[in-house]
Amino acid sequence: MQESPVAPAPETPSTAGLPLIVQGDMTVLLEVNHPMHDEARDAIAPFTELVKSPEHVHTYAISHLSLWNAASAGHSSTEVLTILRGLSRYALPANVVFEIESFMDRYGMVRLRRVPEGLVLEADDAGLLAEICKHREVALHLADPAESEPVSQPETGSRVLLLPHARGPVKVALTQIGFPAEDLAGYAEGHPLKVSLRETTLDGKPMGLRDYQDAASRVFHAGGSEKGGSGVIVLPCGAGKTVVGLATMVRCQCHTLVLTTNVTAARQWIREILDKTTLTSDQVSEYTGDSKTIAPVTVATYQILTYRKRKTEEYPHFGIFAQNSWGLILYDEVHLLPAPVFRISADMQATRRLGLTATLVREDGKQKEVFSLIGPKRFEVPWKQLEAQGWIATAICTEIRVPLRNSERLTYALADLREKTMLASTNPEKIAVVRELLNRHKNDRVLIIGQYLSQLDLLRDLLGFPLITGSTPNSERERLFGAFRSGEITTLIVSKVGNFAVDIPDANVLIQVSGTFGSRQEEAQRLGRVLRPKANGSLAHFYTLITRDTKEQEFGMNRQLFLIEQGYSYDVREWKDFLVNGETDAPGETVAPENP
Questions:
Q1: What is the pLDDT of residues 320-343, one digit of tens each?
Q2: Domains of the chain with bracketed CATH
Q3: Angstrom distance (rounded) from CA 455 to CA 495
Q4: Is 365 left (phi over 0), alpha (psi -120 to 50) or beta?
Q5: Are 119 and 167 in contact (CB under 8 A)?
Q6: Once rounded to an integer, what is the mean pLDDT over residues 243-254?
Q7: For a disulfide at 555, which of 205, 298, 372, 518, Cβ 3.0-4.6 Å?
């Protein structure tokens, strides 16, 4: 897209005080300190993505995918343009208006349907359909390429017949060429399974759906029609995405396959299913490296599905998809869906597919594959909205900047990028700040989380708290997490295995000592570990320790983008504020001055 050569119209008295500037390169600038900031941020959230967040002006991008997700959720180009015009300080560039109207309105111009002859691709515009069929990626999937001219139908416009298993590949191809299809080909019902939600959980707590959980499930299911049945629900960690999955199982009343990140998460799903539904233990099974059984509801891990002895072999556990007549597949943490599972998902398009996630951000850039093969974003609630309603804990995010020791600065300056990142992330000056934070939160439940095992081993040795890593046996993980939930242990050190689907509702303080480069999804997942509402109404604290004036500070700014987009702000503090009497953890070492 090229920037419009037309200069913005001058400010008028009615627009001079508005918070947005819409630019010809499809970016939107939002003034942070403007009194309408929160209103504008929430208004543009459905069709933009935050890309930069310096102190005073945040930059959002409008992309084809963000427009298509908005369109699939029921927003129109007219609505989007009305929002932008109502909040923009200047007239919208002509090319931006054109891009929004043309690309947003493309969603659903072509449709997939199931007819007696088989799977067809149809459009109201015969010329458009003919042009689309000439694309190689689409032509490969025509039932008879020699007869690729669309056939006109009185009621449905024009259509072409596709190969029987072309549904997934054609959807991916259409998204890539800029004409995402609305999938109306319907779904197989799968084996029936009678299931309902309990009125009370096994320990006697009232069991009821929150309004947004019921709405999310209802929007996905769409009354069982072909209008629903595929898509992604976006809710913050701690908001009860698992319950949305259970409510969807109840609506579908069919055999269900649940895919999740690891064994701990799989067992947590099984506990939740037995605790909150009428299903019994013989109706729910685990399919992991430890146990491989199939039941009406089977919970498997991405790890086992993508396991193979050699790269040249097929994936032996993909057979699970054919071992039962599944009527529903639930993809937990769908933003982490491994690439090989996309392939099998392309063959499972006749099965209802629900993705659950706190963020659609994927660091591998495969958002279009999620959109095409799992489905578009169907439902989302802003994190701050659920915080205001008390469904997730109020969180205070603090970035603490720590200097490198003078003795480390030359080594850092001469290192390559990867070594620079490691040196900054494992900065030993962070240890003193961790100790001070633990002292301040000695009556809280604290998680210390990091990326580098050497750093975590050192913290374990110095602080004396248990450490959970990827090599910790599942039985030991379960024991330690259970002890943390019960209060027997009040502080845990965890590696990145703690990012995902760990049920530790009483954790209210998280200290992030290092992270995965600039991963926005990881930042969201880690904050989510402490967002479950607390029985005593206490606040959640999320501390991230950053080595000042290094690559880690740059990565840290990128990591925070998604959460800033959700309405969170980071209070940036200097290390001295968190040290008793300004002392370091290593007497005799001189730290670098604040502004070297």
A1: 988 889 999 999 989 888 888 888
A2: 20-104 (no CATH), 110-184 (no CATH), 211-381 (3.40.50.300), 390-582 (3.40.50.300)
A3: 10
A4: left
A5: yes
A6: 97
A7: 518
